[in-house]
Amino acid sequence: MNKVLFICGKNSGRSQMAEAYLNQLGGNDYEVKSAGLEPAESVNPLVIAVMKEEGIDLAHKIPRSVFELFKRGELFSHVVTVCDSETDAKCPVFPGIAHRLNWPFPDPEYVTGSDGEKLEQVRAIRDRIKASIIEFIA
Predict the structure, then answer these.
(1) Is 106 assigned a catalytic role?
(2) Fewer CB atoms inside 10 A, N or C side of the chain?
(3) Of 8, 66, 69, 125, which one is the catalytic site residue?
(4) Can you give the pLDDT of all 138 residues of the chain as single tens digits?
(5) Which residue range forms the structural domain that includes residue 119?
């Protein structure tokens, strides 16, 4: 069993999407969680909308703190940070793991434009995350 943790700043977008896709596509080979350095109050509404298009409901997910997992003594075989250096000055780290990966994706919180343009940008981020998950599983 591979235990995988996806981390980003607020656990409200990228890490939530990555967790959902690995849970959906990885089958029973993975135990997956996501967390953030400074968790948001809720998952980004744009992320909820674009994941719903994929049949994945994130509306009731609650962002969690990476420190919560650390304090519980959880260990992971893979820790994947999904921070983008342009938007995340402090991408969190998690100690005591075997493999660390960084997949830099733009933060959906910072998309701009009309509502339609924002959705298109978040769809593009979603699709890149899904492609990375498919590659990771392979």
Answers:
(1) no
(2) C
(3) 8
(4) 899 999 998 999 999 999 999 999 998 999 999 999 899 999 999 999 999 999 999 999 999 999 898 889 888 999 999 987 644 555 655 566 668 888 999 999 999 999 999 999 999 999 999 999 999 999
(5) 2-137
Domain count, the chain: 1
Is 8 designated active site? yes
- Residue 44 tokens, joined: 């980004």
What the block records as the tokens of 60 is: 């009731």
Structure pTM?
A: 0.91
